[in-house]
Design brief:
Layout: H1 14-29, H2 42-46, H3 50-67, H4 84-95
Length: 98
């Protein structure tokens, strides 16, 4: 069952989640969004350190918290998020979208 969403924002699909993650990362890392793919590894490919990942989590929680009541990325789950695909898969699963 999909998470409860606010009326002013439609539910996200997988592409929408990827676009959100990519755009947040591009802003944080000050790089072109087009250089970020789902297979990009945060540290190895994008040069993202732990602070950048925390900023990403905070940005996603803020953005998705406006769309989905109670959206949160658990601290213990962060260590499993090594690539953009990991982050997208995690958010998609939490939101219950396709």
């Amino acid at each position: 069952m999909p998470a409860e969403t606010h009326v002013e924002h439609g539910p996200l699909d997988r592409k929408g989640v990827f676009d959100l993650v990519r755009d947040q990362l591009a802003d944080i890392l000050e790089i072109e969004p087009s250089t970020i793919t789902e297979s990009s590894a945060f540290a190895e490919d994008l040069g993202a350190d732990s602070l950048a990942l925390i900023e990403l989590v905070e940005g996603l929680e803020e953005e998705l918290g406006e769309r989905t009541v109670g959206f949160r990325i658990e601290d213990e789950d962060l260590e499993d998020l090594r690539t953009v695909r990991d982050a997208v898969d995690y958010v998609v699963a939490k939101l219950g979208v396709d």
